Every structure is written in structure tokens, then in C-alpha cells.
Amino acid sequence: MASQRLGAGDFTMLGPTYAALVILALLIGLIAGGVLYLAAPAIAAILGLQGEMAALAVAYLRVLSPALFLLSLRFAFSAIIASQGQTQWNMRIALVMNVVNLTLNYFLVFGHWGVPALGVQGVALASAVSWAVSFGIAAWVCRSKLQAKLSFRDLQGRFAQLTRPILRIAVPASLEPISFQSCQLVITGLVIALGETALTTRIYVLNLLTVSILWCVSLGLGNQIKIAHLIGARRFEDAHRQLIATTRVAVGGALLITFALFLASSPLLTLFTEDPSVLALGSTVLMVALLAEVGRALNIVVGSCLRASGDAFFNSAMGIVVMWLGALPLAYAFGITFAWGLVGIWFAMALDELLRGIIAYWRWRSGRWRKKGVYAEADARSQKEARDQQPEIP
Questions:
Q1: Alpha-carbon separation of residue 11 from 8, 150, 266, 376, 378 (angstroms)
Q2: What DSSP letter does each residue of 35-72 carry, written as one string?
Q3: What is the distance between the alpha carbons of residues 336 and 194, in angstroms, rounded to a whole number?
Q4: Angle made by CA atoms 97, 77, 370, in degrees to the nearest 5
């Protein structure tokens, strides 16, 4: 929403939009932290932890959960920075946060240099402090380095109006990854049923494919900011050309990276294991992954553009339906029923990514996203009000 306002040159609404996001993030962080604190014993039980392990899990969650609002605020300010196109600041902040976290872990967990050894609680405390540091730096960057002033005064009486379009994108956009992770848990159960070799191979191959996945996600996030600016400026044809250009780069890069991983599969997998069955299966799976990563690149880039335009519900609903009614049954059929094993499951995942990417691109080509932006909806309301005010012709 902020990027669309920047593209439209609507700076008067920018400050209140940022302020609404920060308040929304604070509320969500406080609620989530409270729930996590109270539900800590239940979470340990759900995870199957007992005795000392359950006690450690509860101690960890109850130290970390009160600080969860700091992480939520950090995400909010990171989003503000990203909306301005200054993503290099987020990279620097993340680097500082990780250095602080690792350093404090060294001292607090084992008790070096006279610091008391806090064990698991030290891990949680290190995370909480690193969140506070990253939030502080992000807030300082917004205030001192960017034109990103938070206008809480102008937010009065507008909070619901400004948070409604944010939630209209955020809620569907969050449901899709939740559904994806849930579906992946079920698929992992199918892989476990295939045996230790299949499970081990899946873990190692996913580790290698992280390079390709991060390539696509990074391009998708950067493209999302650019697309939102163009939509806010009502430069719809430029937005379409931007999507096509980024999709080509994402798909081409994903193909090159995955093909390189396939060619070097043996030496790369040898870094993890010497098991010949894992090496052979991993090489075959990486060959199937060529198709999967093409679909993933298309799905990530086009899906991020639909969200940037405000057309988030269709993409999320479509993704959830395809995952559970397409990917999961196919994974069971190819992997278990037809006995293709892990290769069959990966082929089903490839078809899922490809189908969702094609449907998302069809949705983009339909042009309906042009009527979903914050200004498109405002224009539609204005036109309706103008029609309603016209006198009736006898």
C-alpha cells in the first residue's frame, strides 16, 4: 500500500499508512507473544517433549515470547524501508542482528568471561536482545536516513480505513504459505514412509536448492516493490513489461542454477554423505527439479506481483486448492501407488508449482489486478458516488 502511494506521489497519506502498520504490528506482536507465553506447556506437549526437554522448551518460550513484539515491530519497519526501495538497509540490519545474536549466544549459553551460563534461556535472551537492536536500528534508519516519517497525529479517525487494505492483502498472503507448510508436512510423512534413504535425500536436495529458491524469492520481493510503485502511478503497461522482464530473469536464473546443481550433484552431495544410494537418488531428483524450479520461479514472481497490486485473495485461494486437491493426491499416487518413490513425489511437486504459476500468470493477463489497487478502488467509489448524485432524467 505504501509503495502504491509513493508511486502515486501521495505523500500526505504515506505517514498515516506507516503509522497504521506500526500500530497493527505492535498489536499482533503483543497478542502473539501473550498466546505463546500461555500456551508454552501445550506447545511442548504437542511437539512430544517430556520431562527435562519439555521444561527447557517452556523456559525458552517464556523468555522469548514477551519480546515477540520487538520482532513484529522490526518486520514493520523493515517493510517501511523496503517500500522506499532501500533494501540494502535491511540487509545491513539483518547482518548486525545475526552478529549480535551469535555473540550473545557465545557468552550467555556457556558463560564465558564471567557471564553466568544460562543455557537454553541464554539462547532465548540472545534472540530477544538481537531483535531489540535490529528494531532500534530500523527505526533510526526510517527516521534519519529515509523520507519515512510516521504520522500518528494524522492517523486519528483513519486507523480502520488505512489498515483495511493492508489486511486485505496480508491475511490471504499469509494463508498460502501456512497451507504450503502444512501440505509439506503431509508430504514429508509420505517421504518418511519410503524409508531413510528417501528422507535423507530430500533434506540434502532441498539444502542445495535453497540457492535457486532464494534467487527467485529475492527477485520476487524486489519486483513486488517496483510493481507497486508503477501501479500507484497507474503505469499499468510498464508494470506488465516489468513483470515479463523479471520473470525471464527469474526462470532463466533458476534453470541455470538448478542445471549447475544437477551437473555437480555427485561432488555436492558428497559434502553430506558417501552413501551411493543417496547420491544416485539425489542426482535423479535434481533432474526433476529443473521442472519444479521453473514453476517455482513463475509462481513466486507473478504471485508477488498480484499481491503488490492488491489482488491477493485469488492467488492464495487458488494456491490452497491446487496444493491440497492436486499436489497431495498426485504425490501419493506417483510416490506410493505407482511406486515411483521420491522421484514421483518431486514430480508431483513440480506439476503443482508449474500449474500454480501458469494460473497466476493467466490471472495477471486477465487484467483484473488493475481494479484492485488502493487508488483503483477509490476511483471506483468516486465514480459510483458521481453516478448516484446525477439527477434522474424524467
A1: 8, 11, 54, 17, 16
A2: HHHHTHHHHHHHTT--HHHHHHHHHHHHHHGGGHHHHH
A3: 8
A4: 130
Which amino acid is it at 345?
I
pLDDT in tens, 179-229: 888 888 888 888 988 988 998 999 999 999 999 999 999 999 889 888 988
In whole angstroms, how far apart are CA 224 and each of 142, 172, 250? 20, 16, 13
pTM across the whole model: 0.76
Give the model confidence (pLDDT) of 285-302 as tens digits: 999 999 999 999 999 999
Q: Which amino acid is at 63?
A: V
What cell numbers appear for 277 in the block? 544410494
- Which DSSP symbol is given to 338? S
Based on C-alpha coordinates, what's the Rg of the chain? 24
End-to-end CA distance of the chain: 43
Report which secondary-structure segment, H or E, holds 286. Answer: helix 276-309
Whether residue 386 has pLDDT greater than 60 = no
User: Cα(257)–Cα(248) distance, rounded to whole angstroms?
Assistant: 14
Helix/strand/coil for 368: helix
pLDDT given at position 352: 93
